[in-house]
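Here is this case:
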Amino acid sequence: MELGSGNQTKTCEDINECLSSSTHSCLSENKMMCVNKVVAKLGDPTHECQCISDKYTKLTDTLCTDIDECKDSSLFTCPSNSYCRNTEGGYTCDCTSGYEKVGSVCNDINECTATNANKHTCHATLGVCTNSEGAYSCSCKSGYQGDGITCTDVDECLAVDKGGCAGNCHNYVGTYNCSCNAGYVLNDNKRSCNDINECLGNHGCAQTCTNTDGSFTCGCQRGFTLEADQKNCSVLSKCSTNSSSTCSQLCAIVDGVVTCLCSNSFYTLAPDNTTCIDVNECNTSNPCIGNATCQNASPGYTCSCINGFKLAADSVSCVNRDGGYSGWSNWASCSQTCAGGSQTRTRMCTSPTKVGNGLDCVGSESETQTCNADPCPLNNDTKNYGIKLTLQGVTATQVDLIKSKIVVALVGACNDYCNVNETTHFGQCCKTQGYRQTTTAKVFTNTANVVISDGYPAPNPVISMATDIVFFVKAAKPNELCNDSSSTSSSRRKRAATFNPSVEFVIPQATLQSISSITSAIVALIQTELNITVTVNVQVSTAIDTTPAPTTTTVATSTTQPPTNTTVTTTTQGTKTSTSTSVEAWVIAVAVVGALVGVAIIVIIVIVVVKKPSKVAHINDP
């Protein structure tokens, strides 16, 4: 601005009231930012308080409040299978249950094949999972009944038709089988029964055998009659002593003729018509069926089963074999390297395999046990930049179910914090001494850059009914938010662990620990998703290996973050004293001191200028 009259012209330099919080009333906790105004004429405003972004609306000259975009469909755009969730300074699109975000769209989750928190809840061994769009259903395997989550054995033998068994029904866990009454053998359909021809085996008849349905009858040769035991035979007309001595086995007068006979079909009369000789059935007809060996006897023969087969009721058939389990395999690799994983081992019904109407193997084909239960060791990333949240009142299994949603909540809280236009917020996240050029909410990090340590969530080793989550947050360099700086990034970089400092930022550990909206967002999420009220204990990651008993205190929600309807109880334990945190503290301290010195220099210059009339001419000067 130029002032003066005649030949004298003086220049006045604008004072930027926004450089010091003592010269303006635009408070960050009220979501305001100071915008300096160059005065055109005396009486014009010297600065203006504006909302920190267009995601806020001004209630008064010194107070802005968040706009809930989700209440006006024209203010948000979400993909199919998602819903709008308002956040401080913006909104986010959360996928509905049964869907997960892939890029900018929500895809169906196949819970039946998932191995993470999205895995189905059907019974591990007895349930059957069927995926559907946005959901899945559970049912029980054949032979079991229930909702698929809980399955119990069905006793098929209690049904009116006895499971279709023509004979007897035998129930087993998860299955059943049929057997037949004496005189019958189970058909290949494993339900109906076929008649056994007992006359092919050791029927016990003294002379002749006649098969009947389900049984058999004994008979006698000519000249003999059946005795009362229905097996043995008595001669009707005996031979003389001399004649009987001529026959090697039986002698009877048949039609008035002395006749030599053999006792049964296991013998045959020799050409001399007096001597009976044994018939070797194993050589002539081999009556044994299937996996059997035949051994001749006098009289008769014997069938024996081999290769694990069972001798049927007909005493000649070896066509059925019960299944038998092999030995257990070695335990498979543990699903987790630490913090409690699981491993399985299996066996197969192959020793021997089931054949014909044999029985299935009885018992489970697999076993599962817990492995690597020790807490996970922390890597350098986590030790230098991570924090641990201990959620009291919820199990690790429950937290794992919503792990992906917790990551989304962490992203939202960090983005909200880093968007605040102060060196203690925006400056810490983007490693800059400058301020933002715009007020529009921008993205600092995303779900791909929230790193939850291996093995977490995990049960807290000291506190019962408590779960630990260990994580740190980084961001791409450059990113949308940090490109909005009014100055270049500091040349001082945080020491790298596994991330690359040339292409990534990381939120300092102390900063991450101070973001109160992280705890409030997670508490609200667990309340909404699991209907469980939890308290949260916050620790830096270096204190994780020796978990102290927490002293819980109620901490008010940070004034730089919007309060939620959920009361958050947090405990902050320990501060990080490693080199990396010390460097961060040193940088912040230098920045603060530098800012104060700069303000002091400006004040001194202003005073000097005011006191030197030769430097500034008044309007009424001659």
Confidence is low (pLDDT under 50) at residues 487-497, 544-587, 612-622. The chain is about 15% helix and 30% strand. The first helix runs from residue 241 to 246.
